[in-house]
Design goal:
It catalyses: 8-oxo-GTP + H2O = 8-oxo-GMP + diphosphate + H(+); 8-oxo-dGTP + H2O = 8-oxo-dGMP + diphosphate + H(+). It is built from two helices and seven strands; from the N terminus they run ββββαβββα. It is an alpha+beta fold. A hairpin with a 4-residue loop joins strand 5 (71-79) and strand 6 (84-92). The protein binds ligand 9L3 and magnesium ion. Ligand 9L3 is lined by residues 9, 11, 30-32, 37-38, 40-42, 85, 121, 123-124.
Length: 136
C-alpha cells in the first residue's frame, strides 16, 4: 500500500450569543477557493492543536481566544488523493476583540440548521449535524 500522508488541521465553530456559527469563505488562490469552512488551519511542527487554533483565529479573523475557551466537540476525517485530513472541531463561545476578515475573505454568521445552504469542503460537511445537535 502506498504511504499515506496524514495532515492534522484544526477548525473552530465560533458561536455567538444568538447561537449562530461563524463560517469563512476560502479566498481565491487557495485550495478549495470559494467554499465555506469553519476557520482554522494546519498544525505546524511544535504546536499543540489548541495553539494552532489560537494563532489561526488571530491571523484570520483578528480575535484573541484563551485556551480554556476551546472545547473539543468532534472530529472530521477525509481522504484526498494525496493526503488524509484529520480535523478536530472545537467550539468557542468566548473571545476578545471583534471578528474582522483579515485576509479579505467573506464571513457569515449562520444558524446551524442553515449551514447546508453554504457549499463546504468535504471534511466540513459531516460536522454540521453535530452542530445542529448542540445548538438547535
Ligand atoms: N480545510 C478544510 N476545512 C477547514 C479548514 C480550516 C481546512 N475548516 C482543509 C483545506 C486544506 C487543508 O485543510 O486542504 C489546510 O487548510 P489551510 O491551511 O489551507 O487553511
Ligand atoms: Mg486556514
Amino acid at each position: 500500500m502506498a504511504d499515506i500522508k496524514l495532515t492534522l488541521v484544526v477548525a473552530c465553530a465560533l458561536v455567538d450569543t444568538d447561537k449562530r456559527v461563524l463560517i469563512a469563505q476560502r479566498p481565491q488562490g487557495k485550495a478549495l477557493a470559494g467554499l465555506w469552512e469553519f476557520p482554522g488551519g494546519k498544525v505546524e511542527p511544535g504546536e499543540r492543536p489548541e495553539q494552532t487554533l489560537i494563532r489561526e483565529l488571530h491571523e484570520e479573523i483578528g480575535i484573541d481566544v484563551s485556551e480554556p475557551c476551546l472545547a473539543p466537540l468532534t472530529f472530521a476525517s477525509y481522504a484526498y488523493d494525496s493526503f488524509h485530513l484529520l480535523m478536530p472541531l472545537y467550539i468557542c463561545r468566548r473571545w476578545e476583540g471583534l471578528v474582522v476578515a483579515r485576509e479579505g475573505q467573506q464571513l457569515a454568521w449562520v444558524r446551524a440548521n442553515k449551514l447546508r445552504d453554504y457549499p463546504m469542503p468535504p471534511a466540513d460537511i459531516p460536522l454540521i449535524p453535530h452542530l445542529i445537535d448542540l445548538l438547535m
